[in-house]
Every structure is written in C-alpha cells, then in structure tokens.
Amino acid sequence: MRVKHKPWAKEKLAAHSAVVIQDPASCKGRWNEIFGNDQPIHVEIGSGKGQFVAGMAKQNPDINYIGIEVVESVLVIALDKVLAAEVPNVRLLAVDGASLQDYFEPSEISRIYLNFSDPWPKKRHAKRRLTNPRFLTLYQALLPKDGEIHFKTDNRGLFEYSLHALSEYGMVLHHVSLDLHKSDFEGNVMTEYEEKFSQQGYPIYRLEAVFR
Ligand code: SAH
How far does the centroid of ligand 1 lie from the alpha carbon of residue 119, in Å? Predict the structure, then answer.
C-alpha cells in the first residue's frame, strides 16, 4: 500500500503500546495472557489501513485479532481505526509476516486472513506472494491441524495462482467465490482495497483453505 512516508509514525505507534505491541517476540507463547482471555486468535497479514481487523473485532468480540503490517506509515492509520472502534480484542504488530514463527508458538493462532495481498505479478517474484508454498509451510507450522486461511483479492492472476498453490500443497478449499459480493456469503467485512475495487466494478475473489 502506497501512502506518504510519516516520519512520526514510529513514535505514535510506540505511544499506543497497549494496542501496538512493541516487542512481539517476547509475547511468543503468551498471547492469550496479553489479551487476558482464552479466546481463539486470528491473524491478518498485510492489514493495511485496518478497516478489516477493526470491523471483524467489533463483529466478533469472542475472537482475538492480531493485525500485522510491515509499513509503519500505513499501520498508524490502522491504529486510528482500532482506537476509534473501541475494541479490546485487537493488537497490531509492525513486523514482516515472513517472520511469523518469531512471534507465535505452534497452534497459538487458529486462522490467518490474507486480504488483497500484493500480487507480485512477475514470475521471478512468485516467492514473495503470501500464498507461495514457502509461506504455506510457515503457516502450517503455526496453525493447528484443520487451521484455516481465508483469502480475498481483486487480482485474478493472484487468485488463480493461489488456487493452484493451495491445492497443490494439499489444502482443502471451501467457499470458493469468483464474485463475493454477488454470492450468499454473510457477514463480509470489507477492506479498504475491497471497497475501492468493487466500487470500480471489479469482482472480488474469495476462498477458504484448510490444512489437513
Ligand atoms: N488488507 C488491506 C491492504 C492490502 S495492500 C486491504 O485490503 O485494504 C497489502 C498490504 O500488505 C500492504 O499494506 C503491505 O505493506 C502489506 N504487506 C505486504 N507484505 C507483507 C508482509 N510480508 N508482512 C506484513 N505486511 C505485508
């Protein structure tokens, strides 16, 4: 996501350390303690401006959400949304999803959301796609058996690639939709990108994938 660089972002994130966890590696294995409850923990990688994670937290108070966004100038916008939503069940991390194993113990999280992930259309960049087998191995090591990945995108090429990569990896696919907003899926919480692209008339692709 391209936003103006904000030199003050780091300082603002640090000033809200109850929401933006400053040393997430030290929380590894202790996330339920951090949330102060035993609720399941769902992680979104590439949260962007935070509308999804804030909206999901409001809609599902019995789930804990962790939004991961590597660009601090973007994460500060998510922070504002989480603060405005007044939800106790969200934490934000300014880290790279590729290092997920540094922050979570196996089975500590039960679902991963990928929303409008960068498509990396060039073949030589395929390894950077968040549905690449390299990432699936990482997710599988952290999710329990039957752990789920929920994925939405406007990008047809990335969706085709992901259908292939996930099934090739041996995951079972559910609720595959080639036009989410015309499907019977209920309770959809839109992301910023989703609003933008669907307003422009593009269909939204969605799937759920389960490890087995
Ligand atoms: N989910 C949001 C943003 C989509 S853009 C929405 O739908 O509106 C993709 C976002 O993922 C960008 O903000 C980018 O900085 C972030 N991102 C990309 N790779 C990442 C990674 N490895 N770890 C964490 N965030 C990542």
Answer: 10
- Residues 78, 92 contacting (CB under 8 angstroms): yes
Task: Identify the residues whose C-beta falls under 6 Å from ligand 1.
Answer: 1, 45-48, 68-71, 74, 96-98, 115-118, 191-194
Q: Tens digit of pLDDT for each residue in 54-82?
A: 999 999 999 999 999 999 999 999 999 99
pTM over 0.90: yes
Residue 197 CA from chain centroid, whole number: 18
- Residue 57, phi then psi, degrees to nearest 5: -65, -35
Q: In DSSP terms, which residues pair with 207 in a beta bridge?
A: 151
For CA atoms 175, 48, 63, 133, the dihedral sign is positive
Q: Which residues contact 158 (CB under 8 A, 6 or more apart)?
A: 117, 119, 120, 121, 129, 131
The first and second tokens of residue 172, run together, are 């079972």
From the list 38, 102, 118, 179, the catalytic residue is 118
As beta bridge partners, residue 210 has: 148, 172
Residue 89: half-sphere exposure toward Cβ, Cα within 13 Å: 19
CATH number for region 9-210: 3.40.50.150
Q: From CA 139, how far away is CA 79, in angstroms rounded?
A: 25
Distance (angstroms) between ligand 1 centre and the Cα of 93 equals 12
Is position 118 annotated as part of the catalytic site?
A: yes
Q: Specify the DSSP element, H or E, that contains 64.
A: strand 64-68
Task: Count other C-beta atoms under 10 Å from residue 207's C-beta.
Answer: 23
